[in-house]
Write a structure and sequence with these properties.
- The chain is an alpha/beta fold.
- It has one domain: Divalent-metal-dependent TIM barrel enzymes (TIM Barrel, Alpha-Beta Barrel), CATH 3.20.20.
- It has nine helices and eight strands.
- Strands 1-2-3-4-5-6-7-8 form an eight-stranded parallel β-barrel, surrounded by five helices.
- Helix 3 packs parallel to helix 4.
- The protein is globular and about 45 Å long.
- It binds the ligand O=C(O)[C@@H](O)C(=O)CO and magnesium ion (MG).
- The site of the ligand O=C(O)[C@@H](O)C(=O)CO has 10 residues, from loops.
- Magnesium ion binds next to loops.
């Protein structure tokens, strides 16, 4: 039985962020993830985790100016100083929250940008982030994201992410395989998870195409969860979906599998 972590950015939106920890624990979750903790003091989040016996399994590095459409800055030449500040900020939060892995978003390639220069910036920034994170026993994740939801996003395919991982060559760099994005971009999920499992540091799920509960849509999740058990996957699965009817009302798929 895989371990499921509630994604508190998408789930339990019925209550404000700091109240979602209690709601997730009451619903039976032992782990939680979220995109960005930075609007709240780390100590406030740590208190919620502790009071409700929860583990924080993942969050993202600062993504640049999200409201202006930025989705990470790691592949943007010229933003290295800001990127490095973000690495330190994220590690500072991770140490207080006890978070073992951080997702580093690549970013959207600007129109007309030199793709080779973006690639070089991405590799150099990843090497820096991995080195800093390794000092604290933290792993760094890169996640291929589908081009429908994020047009122009630098990293879209599983094979490309693993090629980047090999090029960077850091032991603490892993791929975050989000089955929702992978199904939209390429499919063949079982073969790919089987092939790359030792280098997958985190998995996320949602129904395709609507990104609702995993028991909605075209992906056979019971089959994939059984496969992960058979393969001995002992990591977390982040429930990164938008509940269609209400978070608790939609949780039947966990018990029902
Ligand atoms: O899949 C996603 O969208 C997230 O995992 C993420 O980190 C970026 O939005
Ligand atoms: Mg994801």
């Amino acid at each position: 039985m895989p371990r499921f972590a509630a994604n508190l950015t998408m789930m339990f939106n019925e209550v404000p962020f700091l109240q979602r920890f209690e709601a997730a624990a009451k619903a039976g979750f032992k782990g939680v993830e979220f995109l960005f903790p930075y609007e709240h003091p780390a100590e406030d989040i740590a208190r919620e985790l502790k009071s409700h016996g929860l583990e924080n399994v993942l969050f993202n590095l600062p993504p640049g100016d999200w409201s202006a459409g930025e989705r990470g800055i790691a592949c943007l030449p010229g933003r290295e100083a800001e990127f490095r500040e973000g690495v330190l900020k994220a590690i500072g939060y991770a140490k207080i929250l006890g978070t073992p892995r951080l997702h580093m978003m690549a970013g959207i390639v600007p129109h007309g940008a030199d793709v080779d220069a973006c690639h070089a910036a991405y590799i150099a920034n990843l090497r820096h982030a991995c080195e800093e994170a390794a000092r604290h026993g933290i792993a760094v994740m890169i996640e291929p994201i589908n081009t429908r939801d994020m047009p122009g996003y630098f990293l879209n395919l599983q094979a490309d992410a693993h090629a980047i991982r090999e090029e960077v060559g850091a032991a603490n760099l892993k791929v975050q395989m989000d089955f929702y994005h992978a199904q939209i971009m390429e499919g063949d999920l079982a073969t790919k998870v089987n092939h790359w499992l030792p280098h997958i540091g985190h998995i996320q799920v949602a129904g395709v195409p609507a990104r609702n509960e995993p028991d909605t849509g075209e992906v056979n999740y019971p089959f994939l969860f059984n496969l992960l058990d058979e393969l001995g996957y002992d990591g977390w699965i982040g429930c990164e979906y938008r509940p269609a009817k209400g978070t608790v009302e939609g949780l039947g798929w966990i018990g029902g599998r």
